[in-house]
Specification:
Elements (H helix, E strand, L loop, with lengths): L2 H4 L7 H16 L7 H8 L5 H21 L3 H13 L6 H26 L4 E11 L12 E10 L6 E7 L1 H24 L1
Antiparallel strand pairs: 1-2, 2-3
Helix pairs in contact: 2-4, 2-6, 4-6, 5-6
Length: 194
């Protein structure tokens, strides 16, 4: 049996395949854990045998992963899909057209999702500061000295933020500014040499 004959019939032409790609993207890139293989098969390819659907889903998921991880532009995508249509056990030209249309419509959102998923730690989302005068202290000589209160909002996009509040005296502010200046100098040196 040829590879194209083994694939489950599309419920409504390319609409089912487009919906399948959307489901794969929802589960893989948008964090929707409730989009399961059983749900997709039941709604999009109810007549397909589970192993046939699993093979189609795996193939489309693999193609989408290759396309997304390379963040293919339309020329790269066309070349990639053309190669896939000529490959033994590849995809049909109709499937290639559906994938191309899907990628054109979802590229930016999938790319943003991958960038957000690849961040290994929190990012600084916002920072507020103010300068106060100390009105109480264990040591009398520290009363009425200026202190900087810095509040940093940390977190990943789409997740609840954490807030970190720090208090700096004048010496600590100077130390912090010196370190930040060293970081800036290192970054400037790197950008000028590349």
């Amino acid at each position: 049996m040829a590879a194209a004959e083994q694939q489950p019939p599309a419920a409504d032409g390319g609409k089912a395949l487009s919906a399948l790609l959307g489901g794969i993207a929802q589960a893989a890139y948008y964090g929707k854990a409730d989009i399961t293989e059983e749900l997709l098969r039941g709604q999009l390819y109810p007549e397909a045998a589970p192993e046939e659907f699993r093979a189609l889903r795996a193939k489309m998921g693999g193609l989408l992963q290759s396309i997304a991880s390379a963040d293919m532009d339309l020329n790269q995508l066309e070349a990639f899909l053309t190669a896939q249509t000529k490959k033994q056990g590849g995809i049909t030209s109709d499937q290639a057209a559906v994938i191309a249309k899907f990628w054109k419509n979802h590229r930016v959102r999938i790319h943003e999702s991958l960038v957000n998923q690849s961040r290994w730690d929190n990012v600084l989302k916002n920072m507020n500061w103010r300068v106060d005068l100390k009105s109480q202290s264990r040591h009398v000589d520290q009363i009425n000295t200026p202190v900087a209160i810095v509040e940093m909002e940390l977190g990943k996009n789409g997740q609840e933020s954490e807030f970190l509040c720090l208090e700096f005296d004048e010496a600590r502010v100077s130390q912090m500014l010196k370190k930040l200046s060293e970081i800036e100098d290192s970054m400037t040196a790197l950008t000028q040499t590349t």
